[in-house]
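pipeline/complex-builder :: batch 7 item 3
reading input block
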Amino acid sequence: MAYNIKEIALRVGVSKSTVSRVISGKGYTSPEVRERVLSVVEELKYKPSAVARAMVSQRTNNIGVIIYRDQQPIVSHPIYGKIVDSILVAAQAMGYSVYLATDRGMSLSSTDFMMEKRVEGLILISRLRQNVIEYVKKFNIPYLMVNGSTDDPEVMHFVSMDEEGGSHAASYLYQLGHRNFFVIAGPQEHRSHNLRLRGFQESMERMDENIEMSVYYSPESSFEQGYRLLEEQWDYFIGQGFTALFATNDMMALGAMKLLQQRSVPIPGQVAVMGFDDIEYAAMYSPSLTTIKVDNSKIGHDAVVMLDRLIKQEKVLSKLNEYTSELVIREST
Amino acid sequence: MAYNIKEIALRVGVSKSTVSRVISGKGYTSPEVRERVLSVVEELKYKPSAVARAMVSQRTNNIGVIIYRDQQPIVSHPIYGKIVDSILVAAQAMGYSVYLATDRGMSLSSTDFMMEKRVEGLILISRLRQNVIEYVKKFNIPYLMVNGSTDDPEVMHFVSMDEEGGSHAASYLYQLGHRNFFVIAGPQEHRSHNLRLRGFQESMERMDENIEMSVYYSPESSFEQGYRLLEEQWDYFIGQGFTALFATNDMMALGAMKLLQQRSVPIPGQVAVMGFDDIEYAAMYSPSLTTIKVDNSKIGHDAVVMLDRLIKQEKVLSKLNEYTSELVIREST
DNA sequence: ACTTAATATGGGAACGATCCCACAACAAAT
DNA sequence: ATTTGTTGTGGGATCGTTCCCATATTAAGT
């Protein structure tokens, strides 16, 4: 069992108040006593209990991060991993400790345990159900959402400017001379995938009314599904002579690209491929993937800064925090 | 501020003891009182404070996970991400909450805060310095290391059977007919990279004394360094006519493969490429990468199970837990 | 009628810190 | 000589639970 302040006081021969004063550095302490206390503290490797301290100070300095996923990967997901990395770094720099948890579907169990742990704020990552949001709201605790799918105007939300990004992708591909597009869109209930698609479509229409575009919805925005979807539509794909393929995220784009390579379709010679997100692997792939970069590190960092402001009850500017996305041109186009 | 048990007791008109009994479900409580208490609890969304509970029960049900990295990626690293995923899932299933932190170099600050938080056990991930290990030891708390680099026999350690894996790789490539190898090895101070290399080399020597093998050490086991190292040795590489390239991890193998593809070297036609780890991207790459699979999910899961045993002071079998690695044959060989 | 047991409830100590308050000792200022 | 201020220390309430113990009521067994 860990030592406590009383034990230290006993060994030094002073009261626990004095020990407390030495450790916290506030209040008067004589140099000799201070030294004796510190030497015993060092010797026994005494660390004051954050649990007891939280009890009296009514502050835990803990924040909770919950990632909503129905299956693996959780943190090994290229986007969420990046976000968690930056949350970790920012939180530690600001003096918060982070509880990390994952919940599936509409489970509330992680929320419950976070509340019991008395976290001071909550960061909800990924697409969580509305019932979870309603539940979290009831606890009157600062929270915010990253990469979610809600239209609830009450919820502070950190997302990329998906529609704008889709539009960037459209302009770029159009400008390269492409006029017929095969588009792989993520699940329709996904806010960001929808917006990316809409931005792409509307931008195209604005530029040219005679664009050929075939849109397919993937049940999941994964590598495997990107691959499979293109495989299922292969005959049509080849028959129609599409010159460009746009997917609403990199994973699906990579999946499609993998199939194209296996079937020896030159990229970008015969078909240009473009994704969205700029995950780590996009640059590594061969050919490297042209994409729309979303700065998830910045999003994660800013989310922590904002949560801190909410915790400190400082003024916040806006509920919806949108991040500009930027075109990254690589080998696949 | 969150409600407390006294507030609930006051509203129901009973003592806090009674409320406590209703919530914990132990001791006698009359049905009517129970119902009244539960309805107020539900109405106010009261959650008992785990902080106060930890105070009296002397158990926090928290474990700490510290990832030692000098730079990003932390959790977005393909291996550590996988490990953290499985730790999260296992820990939650066993009733533990997890604090996640990261430390650089020989910093002790995460250890300190974990001790203050009174975590019941610690999982140390990645290559941490010996001074950190010595520091952790002093606290007399269950801890174990995953994917580390220590030779300290005292430290419970979870690693893959790297030497065996290197040997598998050697046999496989030899059996394919390769006799001259270009090897990219990770940093020499890395235990696992060293063992992988040694297993590869010694196995080769055992099979055939006339093997040509050029070994290069990369300062970092990353994609970029794999790429760069091959680029620097390019003339030699091409001149010598190596038919196989083995890297001691997938990231470096992929980096090298990327360069080979950019320079239009057919894989595996002219050069076969093999990695180690079987990270997610190995299968996605085109061509997909032949590698030695390390089951990091299992390692993470088992580490939690073991930590739980250490916490419960149950008997543990061995300090060193090694996981067999298995050959995964794909397109790159 | 009287012990015994089961059911039901409340009071209060304990966990390990913080922090306010009381009190001493001593110096400096009136 | 008395007040005031500074320095240094200790006592004890407090935070929100759990859990032991005391007490009360009712039912059952002798």
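note: The domain at 62-160+298-324 of chain B is CATH 3.40.50.2300 (Rossmann fold).
queue -> next item
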